[in-house]
Amino acid sequence: MVQATFAATLFDEWIRRGLTDVVICPGSRSTPLVLACAARAELALHVRIDERSAGFFAIGRALATRRPVAVVVTSGTAAAELHACVAEADQGFVPLLVLTADRPPNLHGVGAPQTMNQRELYGAKVRRFEEPGVATAAAASTWRSLARRLWHGAVSAPGHAGPVHLNVAFAEPLVAQPGNLPGLEGVRDEGWVTPVADFNAQGRRVLCVVGRGVTPDAIATCVAANWVVLGDATAQGSLPYFDSLLRSSTFAQRATPDVVVRLGGIPASKVLQERLRQWNVHTVGFDGAGFIADPDHLVDEMLPGLPCVAPAGGGDAAYVALWRSASARVGDWLATVDTEDAPLNEPLVARAVVDASARSGVALVVGSSMPVRDVEWWAPARTSPTYSNRGVNGIDGVVSTALGVAAGAVAVGLVGDVTMLHDVSALVDGLGSAQGTCVLVVVDNGGGGIFSFLPQASVLVDEEFERLFATPRTHDLVGIAHSFGHDGEKVKTRGELDLAIERALSAPGLHVVVADVPRRDENVALHEAWNDQVHALADAL
User: Fold this and answer.
1) Same fold, 196-322 and 338-539
2) Tens of pLDDT along 490-513?
3) Cβ pair 110, 85 in contact under 8 A
4) Which residues contact 513 (CB under 8 A, 6 or more apart)?
5) CA-CA distance, 240 to 331, in Å (whole number)?
């Protein structure tokens, strides 16, 4: 009974603080935790059989709900399977309560099954680690404070959230009814207020670069201050098409800013990073959106909170007009090639999913490698919530993350064929009991498309490059979707893709839409041709 009461107390405290979702993987040793959360009607339970998929599903739920999500697994390699999602949550600043069950001390080191050293399993990747041992009645007064420490570790200060790890040992018997829970403690909750910092940029050419963690409101504030805002794929309301524009040396010279402002993460564009290094102007970072990604060490000055810009302190309107005019010209040209009967290519697929997300007002989840770049480079400005696992920048678990975002709601996902195959176990449970609608658009380019843009493609002979890097697979992606009981279809034109997404958004369940696009070498040539066209447009301004 003590163990059941301990587990029930943890969830009672977390529910009081806002917990709504728990992702559960089946296992025996975690029984007290599973029964405790199953007894609470306030919690939405998501049961998934693959721990790795479950962890990334939990990330999706945390992104969508903007609050911590608990993931419960049993002992042994089940706990190890969460390592990848913990790494992503760490560097992506996603709040997770990682709850791993463990054997009691007397079963360690004696050959007991499903037993390994789980102490500090995730190392420095978690904000807090707790290992209270087997629950005892004498320690009941500490249970709520334990739950509170873990919760505050996960939410941390604004913009610095992340995973916490509770490794808790349970002794048999594992099934019992909880007794009376310890009373509430009279401890005032911690709270944070994000400060704002005055920043006078009156009449100056301000280029604001934003990424992960920056809210639409923060971007709108910067735009209203007459700043040019360039954002990553997740940014809502930033100026589109900057990557191709900055490939023009003429435009880059004309667009040299007086000052650069940095908020949150960083776009995927290497061209932007190169221009920032070349310009080498004074760079100011604001920490109110969380950790500032600065791999080139360009930030000269750090200010607390978010920018607060008075109307009289706005930037140079002519500078904003230059950028807006250039971006609009690129958009006008793209409209001439982005027609209903146009054969699909990878940038057109990115444009289609962003358009669909905007029209329907549903969330968009973008996979790593080429999808996130094509959304950032070639898609119009995002107006709906957009998510991407850019903490570690990997393809692991992206389908699961998309399903987590869509659970009980509606979302569109954009991934490559290798990304789908890598996370194919996500299709086993799909949306699960939460239901909802997830439209997964898969770019089928026959392998890892981003490698064709890297030096490996030109240095290695074709056979070696294909085998070691491109890794093409011949699986029927539509057939895979059908084999797991989901809808699936293949499309070849922009019009067909739009109709497929529209149909899928109106029906429950997981729908896989496979976009048939040209070979990867043709995709490289297409990007080069489009960049050349924009180069000419930019030079003609």
Assistant:
1) yes
2) 999 999 999 999 999 999 999 999
3) no
4) 439, 440, 441, 442, 488, 489, 490, 491, 497, 500, 501, 504
5) 8
